[in-house]
Design goal:
single chain, alpha/beta, Nucleotidyltransferase, domain 5, 16 helices, 5 strands, 9% strand
């Protein structure tokens, strides 16, 4: 369902932008389509800066003008019939407006005018608007889950704030993590891999919860030397829970999250999971596996020569400290 921005939405958007969040992340946190966020910023920014209160004022001024423009639809029966016809086949107001400019320039109106006409004059037509963003009413009360999620998002350290040395892959101890799902989605492999050496850790967790995953993470990482524990980056899912600061204390590492739907940002871990799938294809019933089966695959991968390591193995580089620079290129 099409959602209109409220003053509260605009103030929240301004706060997220000041915190250096991307448009995609703002869209997810506020429950809007990414294109709506992009359009809102372009239309209501001043001198390249988006401010919540001034953006809302600018919107109100434009809305007053739009009311006058909507009379163009109200006074044109043919245009009304055309808009209704296109809405019923699920054309969006933006598509209708764009096509009118091509087919019938004299009748052309902007998509905002069409939205205003629908919401103010033809509310029954709202059922023909495609559903975008999240379900439910767009007006949020103080203290709702939506607002709580937004506050939590501001606490997250995103992947692009990691120290530059992490990108260089020049030290041991910068890990990426994720889970691999079995036939039963509650049964998972918890996978963690070092960016420099490719040294991996695989743990089988049946009936996985965020609590059990965190317990395994703490046990695994605490078993490694402190000098080989620097950063931990995982995806934006909820498998590992929400409280990153608590996780940092438990595993003794700085914790970062990738952006939503940006799996390529954790390419090392994604590639490692692909190697695991060679042994355990999709739809494998993890409940039938033994711990020894999983440890055997972990051993095989950690002792497999890698071209980027000069054909040393991850075990030789991570555990034995063999010098990659001497043996070959990274």
């Amino acid at each position: 369902m099409y959602k209109q921005f409220t003053k509260e939405n605009r103030i929240a958007l301004a706060a997220l932008l000041r915190a250096k969040h991307s448009e995609a992340e703002c869209a997810q946190e506020l429950g809007f389509n990414r294109s709506s966020i992009n359009r809102e910023i372009k239309q209501n920014s001043e001198d390249g800066v988006y401010k919540g209160a001034s953006a809302h004022k600018k919107y109100l001024e434009r809305r007053k003008t739009a009311k006058q423009r909507s009379l163009k639809i109200e006074n044109n029966k043919n245009l009304q019939r055309h808009i209704k016809k296109r809405l019923k086949v699920r054309d969006s107001p933006e598509q209708i407006s764009g096509r009118l400019k091509v087919e019938k320039p004299p009748d052309a109106v902007c998509h905002e005018t069409i939205y205003q006409w629908i919401f103010n004059q033809q509310p029954k037509l709202k059922t023909h608007l495609r559903r975008i963003g999240r379900k439910g009413k767009y007006r949020r009360k103080r203290g709702t889950k939506e607002r709580e999620n937004m506050r939590e998002a501001l606490k997250i350290k995103r992947i692009d704030t990691r120290p530059p040395i992490v990108e260089e892959r020049s030290r041991l101890g910068d890990f990426e993590g994720d889970t691999v799902v079995g036939k039963n989605t509650s049964d998972r492999f918890l996978t963690n891999v070092d960016r420099m050496s490719g040294y991996g850790l695989i743990d089988l967790i049946l009936s996985a919860t965020s609590e059990t995953i965190r317990i395994v993470l703490e046990r695994r990482f605490r078993s490694l030397p402190k000098e080989k524990r620097h950063t931990y980056t995982y995806d934006n899912g909820t498998e590992i829970g929400k409280e990153d600061r608590e996780l940092e204390k438990k595993i003794g590492m700085d914790v970062y999250r990738a952006y939503p739907y940006h799996s390529w940002e954790r390419g090392t871990n994604e590639n490692y999971n692909g190697l695991i799938r060679d042994f355990f294809p999709k739809k494998t019933d993890f409940a039938t596996l033994k711990i020894s089966d999983v440890k055997w695959v972990e051993y095989i991968l950690n002792h497999r020569p890698r071209k980027r390591l000069g054909y040393l193995t991850p075990h030789e580089v991570f555990v034995l400290g063999r010098d990659v620079a001497v043996q070959g290129r990274m």
